[in-house]
Amino acid sequence: MSGYDYTMERLRDLVMTQYQYAPRQAQMAAHGFFDAMDNDGNGSVSYREFKRFLVSEGFEEFSDKDLFKRLDGDGSRGLDFWEVMSLYYILRSDKPFCTECDDFLLETYFVCNGCRGGPYYFCNSCCQEHNYEMGGDHCYPVYDQPPVHQMQRSQTTNSMVMYTPSRSTSRSSSVGGSSSLRTAYRTFEMALNVANLAVGAAACSIM
Ligand SMILES: [Zn+2]
Ligand SMILES: [Zn+2]
Asked: Where does the record place the EF-hand domain (predicted)?
């Protein structure tokens, strides 16, 4: 990634809005989670603290420095509250990164099941390039919330529009993580689950 990171800015905007409309209990739990992750209490999460959390919760694949740097868009070398909320969104939304350019696929993205070793995930421009290179229509769109006409169609013929990426959701936690951080993380998750249940149809939101 070079230049300005629009994806991370949009993600930051999104989590800010979700926070704003979250119940007070979920907001408190979010701050509790951030404070527990900020082990030395200096108000920002260092790479060391970031990695410690990810490894202990079984998200080791996200613990490289690239993601930390991208989240830390303001270059302060530490994650603020909104950057940690963005991280949480990335972990829980189960949305993939573009196979080609490695951008986080926050909005509608495309999946190729036609090539060996797939599925592969693409952003819009990489999808066009991929289809062009492969000489066919390899990529199918994955909608955040399928348009109504797509949903009706999917019930009868086209099941591709409802395709959801099958990344493993059952994470195994290794022993040795900080128990207070784990407790804060679980509390945050539970508060969000309660909030989502209260809203009812909020399956697509994390807060
Ligand atoms: Zn891409
Ligand atoms: Zn393909």
From this structure: 25-60
CA of 130 to the centre of ligand 1 (A): 10
Q: What's the confidence (pLDDT) of residue 199?
A: 56
Asked if residue 164 has pLDDT above 90, the reply is no
Measured in Å, residue 26 CA sits from the centre of ligand 2 at 41
HSE-CB of 94 using CA atoms within 13 angstroms: 15
Nearest partner of 189 among 205, 207, 177, 202, judged by Cα: 207
Lowest-pLDDT range of 91-95, 98-102, 159-163, 168-172: 159-163
Ligand 1 mean position, distance from CA 104 (Å): 9
Domain with CATH 1.10.238.10 in the chain: 6-94+179-199
Q: 96 C-alpha vs ligand 1 centroid, how far in Å?
A: 11
Q: Is the pLDDT of residue 3 over 50?
A: yes
CA 2 / ligand 2 centre spacing (Å): 25
Give the distance (Å) from ligand 1 centre to CA of residue 61.
Answer: 19
Measured CA to CA in angstroms, residue 137 lies from 109, 115, 132, 140 at distances of 14, 11, 8, 8
Instruction: Please tell me the CATH code under which domain 6-94+179-199 is placed.
Output: 1.10.238.10
Supply 82's token pair: 């909104």
How many residues make up the chain in this entry?
207
